Every structure is written in C-alpha cells, then in structure tokens.
## 1
Amino acid sequence: MSESDGGDREDAAGEGAGSGDREDPAGFEDAVESSSGDPLVLLGMNAVLSATFAWIAVWGLGLLGLVAYTAVNVATAAIVLFALTYVLVLQ
C-alpha cells in the first residue's frame, strides 16, 4: 500500500463526514428551536439523574467516612440536587 492510497482514503473519509453537515445545516437547528419538548420528560430525567448522582455521591462520601450512608441522606441530597438543577435551568 502506498502513501498516496492512505492519503486518498483519509481525504475521502473526511469529505464524506463533512459533506453531510454542509448539505442541510439549518434543518437540525430549525427542528431543535421549534421543539418545545415535554416538561414531564425533563422533570423525570432530572429526578432520575439527581437521585443517581446523590446515591453515588453519598456512597462515596460514606466510604470516606464523611457522612453516613443512609436512605435519608441520599434522599436529601437528591432533593437538593433536583431543586438546584430545576432553578438553574429556569434562569
């Protein structure tokens, strides 16, 4: 295999990947801007992600001996994270 073959393949791959972006760049942006989304889905995702992160954070802090690994601490951290992200997203 010669060096020019490898170069041609890289050029072809680079053109193919970039040409799709150039054909309809505004189509995706228009769809995203016009889509309001379902607020219940956002709230559900926020709740699940906040609870998961709180569980992991309290577990890790429990390993370090900084907090007790209890359901109350996990729930409290999840509620605080949920409220914080909810307020920050609304701004």
Note: Residues 1-35 form one domain.
## 2
Amino acid sequence: MLIVLGGLPATGRTTLARLLAARAGAVRLRIDTIEQALVRAGVAGHPVGPPGYVVGYALAEEQLAPCAHPDGGRARAAAARGGRR
C-alpha cells in the first residue's frame, strides 16, 4: 500500500505520516530527508528538484515490489543478485 501526503507547510503532514507509519508498521519516506542527503553528499545543490523525487520513487518502488509480485519479490531479488540465492 502506498499513501502519499501533501499539503501546505506547517499543516501536520510529518506528524500524521509518523503516526500512520507507526500504527501500520510501515516505512515512511520523506523527500526532504532524501534531498538533504543528496546535498550533503555533494550530488546536488539546493533546490534539489526532480532528482530528489526520482530517488524517492525508486525507494518507494523497492519497498512496494514484494507486494506487487506473487512470489513476494523473490524472483526479482534473485535476478538482482545475478540469479544467486
């Protein structure tokens, strides 16, 4: 399941996301955290723009992939390892 929160600054998005993630035992991805890491690593400057979202989408896809495959993502993981277990 993917839940995306949006809204104006200081409206409680982060608080709500933390509560939802904790209650559901879910992973929370935050674009601000991704962008800050890209800037610290020297990969991007402020504003980061699209690269932050590209990383965020890739992380979300990785977290959701086991849910989208009948084998729980095992075949995809094996392929990523070159077929090794």
Note: The longest helix spans residues 50-68.
